[in-house]
């Protein structure tokens, strides 16, 4: 009985790494999620939120890395388990540096919403959807009744050309007319002929599929 009590007391007083591991995991997961979906949060006014969230998350992750590094000093007395929180932070840092998180998010966005976007393009070409924003003759406000296929209020931008209609579905909408998005071009047309690129060619132009491009200005 005495031996059992002594063993229980020793087990209770052994240092635990659970709290540190949980904290490191939560902070790391939050950091990865923010890094993955940062682009989709970059539209106005969410960009102002990012100005506060990004530095705070970065500080928390750096602080977590330093804190978990100090736990390595306890390996000799507490065991190899005290390396786990640091390994979580190190693995997260490696993912941030080497993994194309935003590209993965963009691919998910493209394939997840593709069917809805193609239906909207078909309705535009059929004349069912037309520009309805008084201050912009090239914009269609889809509103809440339609699938959410465009950032910044579910507005899309169109350009009637000789070969058909260019349709831009936004993935971010920033200040000073900055935008990123998926551009559907008429068959056989050049995405650089989209009217938004008349003054300056796109800073990004990535082909995702036939007649579909990811663009930014």
Describe the structure.
The chain is an alpha+beta fold and 217 residues long. Helix content is 48%, strand content 17%. The chain has helices at 2-13, 18-37, 46-70, 75-78, 84-98, 101-125, 151-154, and strands at residues 139-141, 155-161, 164-173, 179-184, 204-209, 212-216. It has a six-stranded antiparallel β-sheet with strand order 1-2-3-4-6-5. A hairpin with a 2-residue loop joins β2 (155-161) and β3. α2 packs parallel to α5. It starts with a helix and ends with a strand.
How large a portion of the residues is in β-strands, by DSSP E? 15-25%
Secondary structural class: alpha+beta
The major β-sheet equals: 6 strands, antiparallel
Q: Number of DSSP strands?
A: 6
Helix content, binned percent: 40-55%
Pick out the low-confidence regions. Answer: 1-13
Total of helices: 7
User: What string gives the helices and strands in order?
Assistant: HHHHHHEHEEEEE
Cα separation of the termini: 76 Å
Q: Provide mean pLDDT, rounded.
A: 84
Strand order of the largest sheet: 1-2-3-4-6-5
Shape: elongated
Gyration radius, rounded: 25 Å
Note the topology.
Elements (H helix, E strand, L loop, with lengths): L1 H12 L4 H20 L8 H25 L4 H4 L5 H15 L2 H25 L13 E3 L9 H4 E7 L2 E10 L5 E6 L19 E6 L2 E5 L1
Provide a quick synopsis of the model:
The chain is an alpha+beta fold and 217 residues long. Helices cover 48% and strands 17% of the residues. The protein contains seven helices and six strands, in the order ααααααβαβββββ.
């Amino acid at each position: 009985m005495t031996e059992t009590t002594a063993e229980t007391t020793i087990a209770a007083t052994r240092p635990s790494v659970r709290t540190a591991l949980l904290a490191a995991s939560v902070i790391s997961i939050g950091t990865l999620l923010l890094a993955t979906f940062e682009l989709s949060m970059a539209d106005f006014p969410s960009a102002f939120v990012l100005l506060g969230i990004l530095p705070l998350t970065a500080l928390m992750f750096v602080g977590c890395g330093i804190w978990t590094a100090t736990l390595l000093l306890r390996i000799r007395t507490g065991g190899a388990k005290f390396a786990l929180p640091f390994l979580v932070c190190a693995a997260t840092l490696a993912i941030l540096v080497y993994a194309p998180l935003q590209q993965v998010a963009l691919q998910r966005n493209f394939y997840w919403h593709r069917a809805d976007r193609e239906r909207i393009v078909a309705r535009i070409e059929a004349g069912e959807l037309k520009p309805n924003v008084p201050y912009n003759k090239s914009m269609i406000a889809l509103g809440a009744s339609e699938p959410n296929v465009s950032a910044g209020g579910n507005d899309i931008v169109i350009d009637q050309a000789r070969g058909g209609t260019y349709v831009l579905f936004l993935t971010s909408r920033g200040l000073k007319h900055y935008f990123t998005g998926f551009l559907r071009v008429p068959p056989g047309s050049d995405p650089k002929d989209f009217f938004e690129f008349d003054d300056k060619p796109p800073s990004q132009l990535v082909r995702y599929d036939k007649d579909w491009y990811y663009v930014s200005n």
